[in-house]
Fold:
Amino acid sequence: MDTGQHDPSGLPASAASLYRAALGPAGAHAYLPVIARFEERGHSALVWNTRAALGQLAWLAYWRLWGAAFAQAGLALAVAAALGWLWMRAEGVPTGIRIGLTATALVLWCALPGLWGMAWLHRGLRERVAAAVEQADSFQEAVERLERSEYGWRVAGLVAAAAALVVVALLAGVVGQQWRPAVAQAAQVQAPAPPQQAPQVVSPPVASPTEAPPAPPDVPPVQAPVESVAAVPASAAAEPAPAAPEPVLRPRPRGFGVNVGMFAREANAQRARTLLVEAGLPVLEDPIESARGPLTRVRVGPFERREEAERAAAKVRALGLEARVYAP
Structure:
């Protein structure tokens, strides 16, 4: 019913009364001017809404925009699955690119309701107003019906919004807990290894071929007593001096494997080794010298096929340890 009078928002008085009843006092103050512009144009448009961008599912649940809320929730699960694959499976992607893609996905996820939230709200309000006008016998009854619906849902809407926030926080915590080992492993792989200094070999001085070695001074020979010669065992005199042990180079095992981590403390390496052995996994250990001191690298393997290494990595992650599959 249009009486020809207009509301300060620019809407006809009858339409403004219906939208005010559907929005409530606080919602009408915040959103009625935008709704009036949409009605004047005859269609919705992209308008930034900070509350919708930050509130996400909580804002959609409060305004009973269930279709948009389910779509946003499905999009969130799809994005979380894609980012999980990026961090836990895509080993060849650099850490910087992973961080950039993750930040881009989060920005787009917030921008979608921030830009389209008012359009969704406008469509939902129009459907709600049209249903109230159709079911009521008079204009005043339609306004009262919308007011009762808005007032009755106000407390329930706050509860639904809080529940949506709790669910989003729990999902974010679970996803972060699953990604944390993968993020730490990727950062460890991307960090450059400290350069190892080659041992310096000191060669003995070589005499010049043109110079003759100096002649030893004339010293009269001293004959040892017979008792001292007899006292020395023949085996001891003939036994050569023990040679210095040569460094052992440990070759990298062939096949696929799983990097578990590098441990600065032997107790931590022993704890990880014990867990892996109790799980029935083959364990490899390598001592490594670094700028921070000696480290112990713990790995699982080797395996002939990558599928076996992937299954072993899943067991390692189930033990609460980090796991990254490497190729031969």
In short: Residues 62 and 153 are 8 Å apart (CA to CA). The mean pLDDT is 80.
